[in-house]
Amino acid sequence: MNAIYCDTREKPQAIESLSEQIKKKGYELVRTKLYVGDYQLLSNPYLVVDRKQNLQEIIGNVTHDHKRFKAELERAQELGIHVIVLIEHSSAIKCIDDIRYWHNPRLKTSPKATTGNQLIKILNTMQMVYDVEFQFCAKNQTGNKIVEILEKGAVENGKTSKI
C-alpha cells in the first residue's frame, strides 16, 4: 500500500474522517513528525499540505501567530518545499476571492476582527512573498482533496500519480 505521511501534531480525533477517505483512495496514513506541513508523500518531499480547520484558524496564523507561521513558510522556501495550505471551511468558498462574501462572526463582538477583504489581502501577499498556495474545501472532502493535491504534485514532477 502507498503511504501518505501525517504530522504527529495532527490530533487523531480531528483527522478520523479524512483518514478514512485517504484509505479509500489506496493510501495508508503513517504518522511521523514532519519538518514542514501536515501531509506529504514520501516519494515527493518537495510538496506538503498544511491543513487548517477553518478561516478562523488561518486568521490566527496570519495575525496573532504570524511570526511562527512566517518562520515555517521561510523554512519551506529555504528547502525548496512548496506548501499548499488547505483550508477546510465550506463548499461556498472555493478560492481566495470567495472570502469577500464571508462575514467573520467575531465582528459582532470585536469591531477590530479581521474582515474577509483584509484576509484576502493578507493571503494574496503571502502567496507572492512565500510561494505558498491557499486552497479550500468542504470539511467532508478534506481527505480526498489531500490525495488529489499530493497526486497532482507527483504527476507534475514527472512521476506516476500512484507512487
How is this structure best described in words?
The structure is a single chain. The chain has helices at 16-24, 55-62, 66-79, 116-130, 142-156; strands at residues 2-7, 27-32, 39-41, 44-52, 82-89, 133-138. The chain contains five helices and six strands, in the order βαβββααβαβα. A six-stranded mixed β-sheet has the order 2-1-3-4-5-6, with helices on both faces. The protein has a domain at 44-156: Rossmann fold. The termini are close together.
Give a quick precis of the structure:
With 163 residues, the chain is of the alpha/beta class. The protein has helices at 16-24, 55-62, 66-79, 116-130, 142-156; strands at residues 2-7, 27-32, 39-41, 44-52, 82-89, 133-138. It contains five helices and six strands; from the N terminus they run βαβββααβαβα.
| Average predicted confidence as pLDDT | 91
Stretches with pLDDT under 50, minimum 5 residues: 158-163
Placed side by side, the strands forming the largest sheet appear as 2-1-3-4-5-6
Number of helices: 5
CA-atom Rg in angstroms: 16 Å
Instruction: Let me know the number of strands.
Output: 6
